[in-house]
């Protein structure tokens, strides 16, 4: 019996360092170049190291298939800045977060196009967060596990 308790306690302790603490889960909506409407889901969390990191997805509102595009994100916590590279390197977002907004640029992979990005944070329900988390998980799975 003592062995079972010891094994269980070691299991809990070994997984403690890998736990994730979610700092924020936010949905932003707005436009690229003043005319292309998008939705962007951004999650900021802390892992057990502790390291603050971000994950995110976005989609064009005109996309009827409702498919999301996954980001590979570098986040500067002190500057509240995000470098978001679209998975498959189809573009880059350079955004700064302040006053419930994300503002910056979208840059094409060849660097020839640079479009202004302005997004505003919108209120979302727990159910919407769950749906967005499922979308993020699915995009991560499609990009990294198949």
Task: Name its key features.
146 residues, alpha+beta, Lipocalin, eight-stranded antiparallel barrel, 2 helices, 23% helix
What does this protein look like?
Strands 1-2-3-4-5-6-7-8 form an 8-stranded antiparallel beta barrel. The chain has 2 helices and 8 strands. A hairpin with a 3-residue loop joins strand 1 (21-32) and strand 2. The longest helix is centred in the C-terminal third of the chain and has 19 residues, at 126-144. It has one domain (20-144): Lipocalin, CATH 2.40.128. The radius of gyration is 18 Å and the shape is globular. Helix content is 23%, strand content 47%. It is an alpha+beta fold.
Q: What's the alpha carbon Rg, rounded to whole Å?
A: 18 Å
Which architecture name does CATH use?
Beta Barrel
Number of domains: 1
Count of DSSP H/I helices: 2
Low-pLDDT segments: 6-17
Brief characterization of the structure:
The chain is an alpha+beta fold and 146 residues long.
Write the layout of secondary structure elements.
Blueprint: H1 2-16, E1 21-32, E2 36-46, E3 52-60, E4 69-76, E5 81-86, E6 92-98, E7 101-107, E8 114-122, H2 126-144
Antiparallel strand pairs: 1-2, 1-8, 2-3, 3-4, 4-5, 5-6, 6-7, 7-8
